[in-house]
Amino acid sequence: MSLLSVQGLTVKFAMRNNTVTALNDISFDIGQGERVGIVGESGAGKSITGFSILNLLSRPGYIAGGSIMFDGQDLTKLSDKQFRTIRGNRIAMIFQDPMVTLNPVLTIGQQMVEQLQAHRRVSRKDAEIIAVAKLREVYIPAPEERLKQYPHELSGGMRQRIVIAIALLLDPQLIIADEPTTALDVTIQADIMELLLELCESNNVSLILITHDLGVVSQMTQRMLVMYAGRIIETGGTREIINDPQHPYTQGLINALPQQTLPGEKLRQIPGNMPALSAIPPGCPFHPRCGYAVPTCRTVRPELRRHGGSDVACIEVERLHGTTPHKVDYA
Amino acid sequence: MFAYLVKRLFQAAAVMFAISIVAFAIQDNLGDPLRELVGQSVSEEVRQQLRDELGLNDSFIEQYLRFAGRAIQGDLGTSYFFKEPALDVILRKLPATLELVFGATVIIIGLSIPLGVYTAIKPNSIFSKVVMGVSIIGISIPVFLTAILLIFFFAVELRWLPSFGRGDPVHVFGYWETNFANWAGLRQILLPSIALSSIMLPLFIRLIRAEMLETLDSEYVKYAYAKGLQTRRIWFVHALKNTLLPVITVGGVQIGTMVAYTILTETVFQWPGMGFMFLEAVNRVDTPLIVAYLIVVGFIFVLTNTVVDLIYGLVNPTVNLSRMGA
Lengths: 331, 326
Hints:
Chain B: The chain crosses the membrane at residues 9-27, 100-118, 130-156, 189-208, 243-264, 290-315. The structure holds two protein chains of two kinds. By secondary structure, chain A is α/β, with parallel strands linked by helices.
């Protein structure tokens, strides 16, 4: 049985005049110890997926439908009080920017002890011992000293290590990492990812890694979801998708990587932008930017179906191989 | 820390210097002091002689330096009306004013924090909307009108509280007289304190609410929720602590401003403090007393600001006072 099973998750945002759909019928499973990547451009709904699992959507967002089964419990039906026993305890979250996630006026020690005490009956002294042990696990030098320090006294990489240590504090079953290295120096990014991978493997923790970095996804995860305009448009084994992407959007993402072009050559961008949530085109949401689009793509909403190594939401997927894309005239 | 303190004291001295020049310059624009000192019958020759003796014919700089030299030694001139050192007169009136400011500050701190936090946490509740509406009215009504309305309702109509004066304050520590020692004294100071707080209180409720709303929207508050902390702890430890940091700075400045606001409140309530004394001094063209008042109020202003800056450094961990001195 899978640890987390999301079925038909739909998230809407109630705006003043209308309601926009940010997540449309998202379904996926994660097994114990499995690592899944969610990729896509900004605004695809990656972070919203992560936040809705912990019911941390900021207003006016709300879960409009679907279920999130976690270890036999439907998270969408929990009360606030019940949810508190899940958050930070059984599902931990790592935020994007460690410079703004830690509270600036509380010491590292206070921020670690409070979390332990929120979920377990431990004395401050015992909590500090656990905190020091976790800081040592993430290779923080002189952990006892760190407990007395404030976040601003530490570097960005150090802070993200501490955020990872806080995530592991109560030995959760699942960690949701929302672009954990985007805000960090490139040289530190690899270290942090390696650390996260090592800790997930050694503790048998499941991981949802939200990122737009395909390189990171290919190193870190076994399976991946590609999201576009609030939908999953391709899902499958990470290796299969990276080596043989089926959906034109996924192909576009991989082709856009700098490694795919020769030095001096122009990067192969996907033309156009992700549509705004309030103006998602009918039919396939990607068709205005797609080089393979045929007239039916404008009217028929594609469902996920098996092709090649993955599940793809594209009605033309069979014809793609061997066809050359036409030039997209993107207005 | 020490270096910062020294630096801050130098700044304070510079501000005091500027205040003293302005206050002293006013002196020349308040009419001829001789008219107050001597009668109509004194001849022009004698007047001229007196001017020379008093040094009124010297240049502005000479007069200022003489004044500043004495001021540093604590001599701010002699009141024409009271015929005693102006500083002594002011210091006698100081406790009444400081107690009034203290009373208003207690009201402001006691009410603005809970109300500001509540209106931020429950922005859509009816109570929050009432508080926000009333606070707008409070800011809009001038202090003297609030004071008169308070006297009308609570003293004249309802007869619950006395309408004017300090009553019989209790002597403590020899020199200080207090209204906080017994029930009768508290009754005397209640209305003036409310009147004095009537502008600052709504201002602080709105300030705390705005800061709190911003903090509640921050990433670290969202992260605190993700950690599964109790909502109370998130509100009152994670959010409130960050909310109050900017409020401390504004609050310090406002305490100084309130000392100045006492002029209106003390006049309406016939409160025997510095503000009331200042208005009387203006009526009597008691120039040395006016100048001394301005300097003392300026000094209180500078002092509170310096103290608040130092406190801020102690409260906010991201301000490192020892590093700021370097």
